[in-house]
Amino acid sequence: MSERNGYDPGVPCWVDNWQDDADAAARFYEAVLGWEVAADERYSIAMHRGLDAAGFGSPRPEGVPAQWTTYVWVESADETAAKARKAGGDVLVEPFDALDGGRIAIVADPAGAVLGVWQVGEHRGARVVNEPSAWAMSSLLTSDTEAAKRFYGAVFGWQTESFAAGDFEATMWRLPGFVGGEPEQPVPRDVVATMVEVDSQPAAWRPDFWVDDIERVAATADERGGTVVAPPSDSPVGKGAVLADPAGAVFSVTKLILPEGGAR
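RE: above sequence
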């Protein structure tokens, strides 16, 4: 079930990282996550088990920091951008024709968290997810969770459910009728993302990648010029850490431990 050939509308489907030196970024993630990156002058694809896992783009848009961007599969990029604007967000990049005949827009929610919307063409998003060395899910970090609930509900039809995440409360974004994820995962299978309330940083979407050995991954990130923002620590689903690559793009990694005690 970890292999994909497309997603439902309203479901996050891809992550990529835009930097001034995408080749240097690719080398970092090859070492940290074990990817193989097919280098291209403007846009490179990271492969895991020979399947598309993530992307690297260059050059970085002017005025935009190096960062990971999460994309949501939509039926119409133009209509979704209009919904985002009507719901109180901004359209940072108007819909444009992009890779393999797809159409993309970049939007921001009312607190400024940036998200891509993708009306896909031949490229159908991440072909492998929810396993070590692959993207699993993205999380919204924001200081205004109520505004986020209104915005993402209006734009994508997402609903929310809170849950205890150790010593703080987090929120699951759920898409009614969607069946995704994996049968053994510790959250309902209609969950498409999560949200955590934070006050100490700008609102942002952050991707999470599953790993087999979280201590090794954190150590390798540090050795390769990255930053261990938050060292490995216990979480409700296993162990988690927050890292940044040498250019400052932040991401998290998780060593998942399934409820019945099996590790993934």
